[in-house]
Amino acid sequence: MRHLTAIAAGTLLGISALSGPAIAQGSNASLTIVREVDSDRYDPHRSTARAASEVIFMLADTLVSLDHDMATIRPGLATSWTTSPDGRTYTFKLRDDVTFCDGKKLTAQDVAYSIKRWIDPATRSPVRWRAGEVEDVVATDATTVEYRLKAPFSELLYQLTQSFAAIVDKANVEALGADFGVKGFNGTGPYCWGDWKPRNEFRLKKHAAYKWGPPIYENKGAAQIEEIVWKIVPEENTRLAAAMTGQSQVTQYVPYSGLAQIRANRALRLVESKEAFWTYFIGFKIDKESVGDPAVRRAMVMAVDQKAIADNLYFGEVEPAYSYISTEALDWNKALTPNLIKTNVAEANRILDAAGWTKGADGFRAKDGKKLSPIVYGFTGSTWQKLMEAVQGDLRKIGVDMRIQLFDATIAWGKLATQEFDMFGMSFPYISAGDALNLYFRSANAPTPNRMNWKDARTDELLSKGSAALTDTDRAAAYGEVLTQVHEAAVWLPLYHEPMKIAASARLAPFKAHNIYGCGLYKGLDLKFVR
């Protein structure tokens, strides 16, 4: 217990910031959720951060929903749907009892508007490809939507469960303009926009009329917590102390060093799920001089010890990543096993020697008078700080002087859309191989989220082939070839696959963790205090 005492004493000032009015035992008046970073905005069509999705899933709804198994599509705003034989037209039948937070009734026109806004180039959505190659989205009557594609898109229903596909209110969007998702959001979700203080907290108020949640929840009515408070706490020991002292009632952002303490604490419950696909990696901007040499990238990938990172930084609670995606993801091609990445420092040094990168007196390599000293951008917070420093240490073993520059999340997304850096740290959720690979490796997705500037005609051809495939075998074959391409080109340095673990007060009723876009609480409809 001396370790916990030291943490609590050292972070007392941070914990005091979480304090609020006393809440009676069993009261469902307010629930505090602690997390590491904030988002720069809460516009579903323009936000790609998990921090944005966590809140958007509670503010808004989607046509369809995803079960806890991360594979089964369930109803959402649509009660049913049909697909044409050629896979190009989806017809959705909507509920007729859905209202926005301001009381206005939702219609098929709202759905059509939302999808069209998502794919409109003027919206500048970095993930508009997730909507498929849309020909048109038409409201054929008040409760029927026809979603017409130019080509089949096997991922469509999965993509329509994501926060990017949230249905928004046209009048609200137009009234707020550039401030939509910054100063307000009128959604149909179980919670309504309350008060956002960037980098501090976001308060959501219960949507009393709500009764159209996904069928995966036991609760079929309105949320049972009156107010949700999303609290930003960047420092990991402060988050741990907040959980251990009850100031945080739920958090999935607990340091791995504290999981044993949480498991041993009778006042807490650790809610876990293995149906999670969330991967951390460092990407290379392959057209930058420092890392443009494929030999340099291959050597850097080989130099990093993913198992040591998993064991030493994360106490064996994460899975070392030897591929860009989890081998358990949908449409993983089992034939790829021989191509998995392996740590080999001796071979990494040999590759750099052969490529003409020689070590100087300072131990770092140079070629043609230019030092091998790439700069990596990432996010502030304890997670990336420690992770970048571990990678930096491994790279020094082969003479690479990686320089680290971290930014607050409200700034980082803008910085990561520039061409200023050589490498970048990122983590991402996905459901399938196609979900992950289409996101990052399509040429059209450069400069973001394809921050590597990977532009390859064969890759684009294979991604399109996989997206349009109507069989599991054809999808896996196409995506497997893409993965082989980018592995061999050493476009990323994979680090680890993160499972879902949520620390929750034992006063809360049991609930299931959800893994959609890494947002463990999803709609939060089963959250309630029972003692």
Please provide a written account of the structure.
The chain has 531 residues and is an alpha+beta fold. The chain has helices spanning 2-10, 12-16, 50-59, 108-119, 156-159, 170-176, 236-245, 259-264, 294-303, 306-312, 345-354, 382-396, 409-415, 433-441, 457-468, 472-489, and strands at 30-35, 64-66, 73-75, 78-83, 89-94, 134-141, 144-149, 191-197, 201-206, 227-232, 250-251, 268-273, 278-284, 319-320, 358-359, 365-367, 370-371, 375-379, 403-407, 423-429, 492-497, 500-505. The protein folds into three domains: 1-36 and 190-275 and 500-531, 3-Layer(aba) Sandwich (D-Maltodextrin-Binding Protein, domain 2); 61-171, Dipeptide-binding Protein, domain 1 (Alpha-Beta Complex); 278-497, Dipeptide-binding Protein, Domain 3 (Dipeptide-binding Protein, domain 3), CATH 3.10.105. 28% of the residues lie in helices and 21% in strands. The strands form six sheets. A six-stranded mixed beta sheet has the order 14-21-13-20-18-19. The protein has a four-stranded mixed beta sheet with strand order 1-10-9-8. The protein has a four-stranded antiparallel beta sheet with strand order 4-5-7-6, with helices on one face. A hairpin with a 5-residue loop joins strand 4 and strand 5. The radius of gyration is 23 Å and the shape is globular. It starts with a helix and ends in a 26-residue tail after the last strand. The relative contact order is 0.16. Residues 1-17 and 19-25 have low confidence and may be disordered.
